[in-house]
Specification:
The complex is a heterodimer of chains A (301) and B (389).
Chain A (H helix, E strand, L loop, with lengths): L2 H7 L15 H13 L3 E4 L4 H4 L15 E2 L6 H14 L6 E7 H6 L2 H9 L4 E7 L39 H6 L5 E5 L4 H14 L4 E7 L3 H4 L6 H10 L6 E4 L2 E4 L9 H5 L10 H22 L2
Parallel strand pairs in A: 1-2, 1-3, 3-4, 4-6, 5-6
Antiparallel strand pairs in A: 5-7, 7-8
Chain B lengths: L2 E6 H11 L4 E4 L6 H12 L6 E4 L3 H13 L4 E5 L1 H6 L1 H9 L5 E6 L13 H5 L6 E4 L3 H15 L8 E6 L7 E6 L2 H7 L16 E2 L5 H33 L7 E4 L6 E5 L3 H14 L4 E6 L1 E3 L3 H7 L5 E6 L10 H10 L7 E7 L8 H13 L4 E2 L3 E3 L2
Parallel strand pairs in B: 2-3, 2-4, 4-5, 5-7, 6-7, 11-12, 11-14, 14-15, 15-16, 15-17
Antiparallel strand pairs in B: 1-8, 6-13, 10-12
Classes of the chains: A alpha/beta (301), B alpha/beta (389).
């Protein structure tokens, strides 16, 4: 079955209506992950955009057709490792144990519990939709916010212009935990993303699987909602967000970007980068290039 | 057949937990609790105990892992102390408010700062508004017994509130006493297998804890408070069932020792009750009509039982091993006064604070407390007594 048929035929698990913003990358990712995991799953979605959009349920309404819990912002992986242990104990390892969390709940305050669960090889699929900030609370800076980005806590000021530090590159850190499966994905490359979600679910039966998915945010980043997929594609094509996977220590390039576009082409039309000057763009290009070089070397045979 | 051994309090907590056949325990080591985790690990790794053991990277994750396992329908256990309890506060509060049953041992320890690793009840006392049931043990036998009773209590459909079994760090956790260990068959006959449904199960899909509006949240809080109140009677029932099974009764929420005809009472909790009993015997022999009221449960606070126990006394002192910042007193003194309400009038009373940061509460301290109480002429609150030197 092609990935398009897969998406067409599998029933939706997430409710048809949600209050996510138009053009939300996170919602698209959450829908695909939930659909591919199916109803024989236990989901954990901590506070963040997807919880805010109602996937955990809101007032008296359900947000999905499968069991789901809004974990604490910082305990998604540890909570789910308890759920997972119980399902192993019950002899029901067929149940998919799946986290869908933003970058704050993953790379910042949730990182300790994530790292602990990964190190222990807890059997689950952990998906991070990385929209590079605390978007649900109004786009504050997170550790995955990119260099130079304007956020509500790193404004474009005349003294300091946007975020002064490079983004923490979490997927590589996760792959160094010796986990079953680790991959990056982007909603602009849907066939690749669907394949990685499926592979992640398979690998979660043997150990810890981690997916880091680029999640464009029109509201926070200031671009037109209909440009979301294009922004995601430009992130991949500019090597801002390289696509790769790592299975039991072996790295594979998913998209060999032979003719990359420049970072300048990536940032055009994205408001959060509007005030970047030459020096900052050059710095962002340099850090992008060095990361790409590192990924390429890791993937060399 | 039960077996008699000389055991530390921590070993009793671990053996008690193991006898309850937990599905999973997750814990992080901290002084003075560490040997609880080690004992459980020994039992799991030797195959003696069929349970999952998750060696987490922090207490925050310890409570989170057991929370997940409990939500998935398991009987779970953990143990901690002081800074560990403080670190796990976020999922700790949520465990009780999700109404997930479990038992957690607390080998109580003073809170930093100043830097300390020694005994004190400030840790458990500081979280007494987090919705858990809390009991305090005097002896190592009581620790083991209360773990068994704790599971029966927490899993009772009228309760469904997690239970802390607290005991004094080092004084109880590390000192050795004679303990009767029930056999597995005896424990099984007392405590039925876990039978509560899993909250997170694809066969019965539901959202656990969706965003909840205020009017519904208030209903949940009221239910929680009502179950706390209902637990008072269940605690006594469980105590009676335990007595029928093992021949040991602790008196439920409160134990009165030589309170018949007492004019004066010392109210205290935990291991200090041992010395307090000896002091009561000593002073009774000398003609002082002193008794002991042992607070066994602090949450729910057994207000009626405390009021009854102190009904006939002219004066009482509450000996706390922790402080209530802002009241210039120990927390159980404040709560005992609140429980007495109007019947407080006419009694002389004061708060005595001792045993912080591992300091001893000695016979001399308790004698000083009782004699000061005996010498108080006027009713009302006397100044707080610090049991130092």
């Amino acid at each position: 079955m092609s990935y398009i048929d897969t998406i067409k035929k599998l029933p939706q698990v997430m409710t048809p209506g949600s209050s996510a913003c138009q053009g939300c990358g996170g919602e698209l990712i959450t829908r695909r992950v939930m659909q591919l995991a199916g109803n024989n799953s236990v989901f954990a979605v901590p506070p963040g955009c997807m919880a805010g959009a109602g996937v955990d349920g809101w007032s008296y309404q359900n947000g999905c057709t499968a069991p789901i819990h809004i974990t604490l912002l910082d305990n998604t992986a540890s909570f789910l490792s308890g759920v997972s242990e119980m399902y192993q104990r019950k002899g029901r390892g067929d149940v998919n144990i799946v986290a869908i969390a933003g970058d704050g709940a993953t790379a910042d305050c949730g990182f300790q519990s994530l790292s602990g669960a990964a190190e222990r090889g807890a059997k689950m699929l952990y998906v991070c939709y990385d929209n590079e900030g605390y978007m649900n609370t109004g786009f504050q800076r997170s550790s995955t916010t990119s260099l130079g980005s304007r956020t509500s806590t790193t404004p474009a000021g005349s003294a300091i212009n946007g975020k002064e530090q490079n983004a923490k590159y979490l997927p590589l850190i996760m792959s160094m935990h010796n986990i079953e499966y680790c991959a990056t994905a982007s909603p602009s490359h849907m066939m690749d993303m669907v394949g990685k979600i499926k592979r992640g679910l398979e690998c979660s039966k043997r150990g810890f699987a981690y997916l880091h998915i680029f999640s464009p945010c029109p509201t926070g980043w200031s671009f037109r909602p209909d440009e979301s997929i294009d922004v995601a594609r430009r992130a991949v094509r500019s090597n801002i967000f390289p696509l790769w996977e790592c299975e039991r220590g072996r790295y594979y390039l998913s998209f060999d970007n032979r003719e990359p576009i420049t970072v300048r082409e990536f940032v055009k039309s994205i408001g959060k980068f509007a005030s970047l000057g030459e020096a900052e763009l050059n710095a962002l290009q340099a850090s992008t290039d060095s990361r790409w070089a590192l990924i390429k070397r890791l993937c060399e045979r | 057949m039960s077996e008699v051994k000389a055991l530390t309090g921590n070993k009793c907590a671990a053996l008690g937990a193991a006898l309850c056949r937990p599905d999973l325990s997750a814990a992080y080591p901290i002084t003075p609790q560490s040997s609880v985790v080690e004992q459980l690990a020994d039992m799991v790794y030797s195959g003696e105990l069929d349970a999952r053991m998750v060696q987490v990277e922090s207490e925050h994750s310890a409570m989170s892992v057991v929370q997940g396992a409990a939500a998935a329908g398991g009987r779970v256990f953990t143990a901690t102390s002081a800074q560990g309890l403080a670190l796990m506060f976020e999922p700790y509060f949520r465990m009780s408010t999700l109404r997930l049953p479990m038992v957690m041992a607390i080998a109580t320890r003073e809170m930093t700062s100043p830097e300390t690793i020694w005994s004190g009840q400030q840790d458990a006392m500081s979280v007494r508004e987090a919705g858990w049931i809390q009991c305090f043990c005097e002896t190592n036998q009581e620790i083991l017994d209360m773990i068994l009773q704790g599971y029966m209590l927490t899993e009772d459909p009228r309760v469904l509130i997690p239970v802390n079994v607290c005991y004094d760090g080092f004084y109880s956790s590390h000192l050795v006493e004679r303990v009767e260990i029930p056999s597995q068959a005896e424990a099984d006959a007392f405590l039925p297998p876990y039978s509560l449904p899993a909250k997170l199960d694809p066969r019965t899909p539901q959202a656990l804890d969706p965003m909840t509006p205020g009017e519904l949240l208030m209903k949940y809080r009221r239910d929680h408070l009502e179950s706390m109140r209902a637990a008072l009677a269940v605690i006594d029932e469980v105590d009676a069932k335990f007595a029928a099974a093992f021949g040991r009764s602790y008196g439920g929420c409160v134990e009165s020792y030589r309170m018949e005809g007492a004019d004066l009472a010392i109210v205290t909790l935990g291991s200090a009750c041992g010395a307090a009993r000896d002091l009561v015997d000593e002073l009774r022999a000398a003609g002082v009509r002193l008794g002991l009221v042992k607070l066994r449960f602090t949450r729910p606070f057994p207000a009626e039982r405390v009021k009854e126990a102190l009904a006939g006394v002219k004066g009482f002192a509450v000996v706390d091993r922790s402080v209530s910042f802002g009241w210039d007193a120990g927390p159980m003194y404040v709560e005992t006064c609140a429980a007495l309400g109007e019947s407080l009038a006419g009694k002389a009373h004061f708060s005595a604070i001792g045993g912080l940061g591992g300091a001893d509460i000695s016979m001399a301290h308790l004698r000083e407390t009782a004699l000061r109480l005996a010498g108080l002429a006027a009713p009302g609150r006397a100044e707080t007594l610090w049991l130092m030197d």
